[in-house]
Each structure stands twice: as structure tokens, then as C-alpha cells.
Amino acid sequence: MPLDPARTVAELKELRQLTGDENGAQRVAWTDTWETARGWLREKLAGLPLEEEIDPAGNQWWTLRGASAREVLIGGHIDSVPNGGWLDGALNMVAGVEVLRRLAEEGEPAVTVRLVNWADEEGARFGRSLFGSSAAAGSMADQDELRRRKDAEGTPLPDALAEHGVELDRALEARNQLENAAAYLELHIEQGPVLESIDLALGVVLGTFGVERHQVTFTGQAAHAGSTPMDKRRDALAGAAKLELEIREIAKRTGAGAVCTVGGVVTKPGIVTSVVETAECLLDQRHLDAEKLARMLDEAKAASERYAGEEDVEVVWERIWSIEPILFDDALIELADEAIREVAGESHRLPSGPLHDAAEVARAGVPTVMLFVQSLRGLSHTKLEDTKEEHLELAVQALDRLADKTIARVAAG
Ligand SMILES: [Zn+2]
User: Fold this and answer.
1) β-strand 111-117 against 202-208: which pairing, if any?
2) Per-residue model confidence as pLDDT tens digits over 94-105
3) Which helix (H) or strand (E) holds 280?
């Protein structure tokens, strides 16, 4: 049975029909619809010489034993956000099914190949993304906090997991799943506009952005809007406004994909008759290069202090969250480039703004690479999410080539 990329597109439509409605995909993790999708995947792989298992974190694995116990992993996630798109996560899985069919048909591969459906990548119900992959990577460090999490209906997270056979306290036992992993491959829709803007179907992902997220608070003095002369004001919003314009310059100067965003500013007292006393800004900065990210942060801090001086206000920084950049494997990036060139003629290398399960696997020390396929209009997490069918088919072919190249490399090394 040769690879049949058109079948992947047909099966994705079948899955959309089965687990979506007029508002989009409804495969939210730890729900009945998610379980339906997992059962559907199981049926698609029935009859092949595979072993299926669900690990203690709820990740669903299929193993095709090879001549060597070293493993090449292909991963994705069948869960979606509520009213989500038909391709986010599902493309990875359904393309992986097709590659596994082709490999199984050809007999015992040189190394063991495993397909994994990570549990709860999106974190849509409980606000905790990358659940299954972080458990397998051993980086899940928030089990105490997870124990207290509830969904919108007040159902505690541990109860919802238990309904699907997962004990939160045992989730980290999924760690031994990566023991023999020699490489991890993930195909995903880009969820951004870059590939479409350069008219390419496919790209190789270099890694996921590091993120620095801060609350920056400017504090001045509330004063009457009518009686306070312009040169006597200590206007906190003036400092915030200058910073918002400057971070765009910082990102532009830094380049190489740098992004900086002030996602919100809350001003107090927030009335039309008063100068602003406090302006709390939410700043998000991202880069693939840790040094450049650190420099962007330093520059923003220095600029905020300069503006505080100019406006005679105070500024205080508080870190909300941060994560280091996670770089994918150089050798696998080369193989992915080759695979894309073979099927699509031209390749492109780009960073990923969103995090993915692949970042957790890479963080655990497994050589990792991702392929991106073009997203139309850069839209995702909406029913409008889409990719041209011809591009979906190229993506299946590229993943298939990459799997073969990776198997050969792992077998040789
Ligand atoms: Zn995804």
C-alpha cells in the first residue's frame, strides 16, 4: 500500500464531520467528543501490526516494532479548542497514521517507529497546555496547582482526568515513554501568515520562541484635568505610551523574527477628569535567540526608566512568566529541509511563535524537528482555519520522506 496523501485529506474531513459542528471542531480534551476522536484513530490503525497503549498521562501510543529498539517518534494532538479548526493537531495525527500504514506495509523497519497522540495539548478546559507531553518530558512541576484547578462548571481537573482513566498523581510515570526515543518529528499547520506571504507550501521550524512576560507599572500623581498645567503633571500614561511605541522599535532593531507586544494597559483612576496616576502595562517579548531576547528586555527596561525620568513618574517591573527559547536539532533540520525540497521544490526556515508538544520533547533532550505547512490567512483556533488541499498532500509526503530519512539516520548512528 503506497502512501496515499489524498486519503489523509478525506480522513480529516471525516473527522471534522464526526467531531465538529457548525461552529467548528469540538474535540476538547477530557470530553466525550475527544474520546470519540481517540476511538476513531484507533479504528484507523486497526488491523496493522501495531501495539496500542495509553500511558499514565493519557497519551495514546502506537508502536511498530523495528529491528532496533531505538525509536523514531511521530507526534500530534487530536484535541482542539472549543469551536476550533479542523487541522490544528489533527493534521499531525492523521498524516502520522498514513505514514505508519506505509511503513507497516513494507515490513519491519530498521528502528522502532511510534505514533503518539499527546493528551490535552490545548489546555482548553483547564487552562493548562501541553499536559501529556510535559508529563512525558518530566517537566510537569505543577501537580499541586493542577490538583486545585477546576473547569468553568466547577469540575476539578483530577475528577475529569479520572473519568478518562488518568490519575494525576501518576501522570509523571509517562516519563519512561521517551527512554528509547532517538528522534521526534511533528508536522503542524503554521497558524501564522509567513509561508503564505512568501508563497511556499512548507517550512522547517527552527525552534520555539523564548518568552519574557512582564507587568510594567508606571506611577505618577492623580491631579485635576482642569487645574493642573501641562508642565506640572506627573502623568503615568505618558510613560506607558512612550514605552508602547518604543518596543516596536526594539523589535524592529533586533529583527530575526523578534516580536514585542503591549497586550493591555490599565489606567487608574481611569476617569476623564484626572491625570493618570498608575498605568499597568502587560508586555510580552519573544525571540528564538536567548541573548537577543535578554537584550530586548534590557532595552525595554532602560527605555522605561528614561521615560519615567522624562515624565517625573516611577516605574516598577514584575515578571509574570518566562520560558527560554527551545531549539530544534540541527541534523534533523537539515533532513527536514531536504524532505521539503524533494516534494515541494523550495524550503524555508522559520521560528514558531506558539509553543508545541515538540518543545516539551526537545526540552527533554530528544532530537526534535517540526514541519510547518501554510495556513490560509494565518488563521487558527477558529472554524475559519484552513489550508489548501494540495498543500496538505505535500505535507503528508514531506512527513513521510522525513520519517524515512530519520529512520535511516537513527539506524546508522
Ligand atoms: Zn496544535
Assistant:
1) unpaired
2) 999 999 999 999
3) strand 278-287
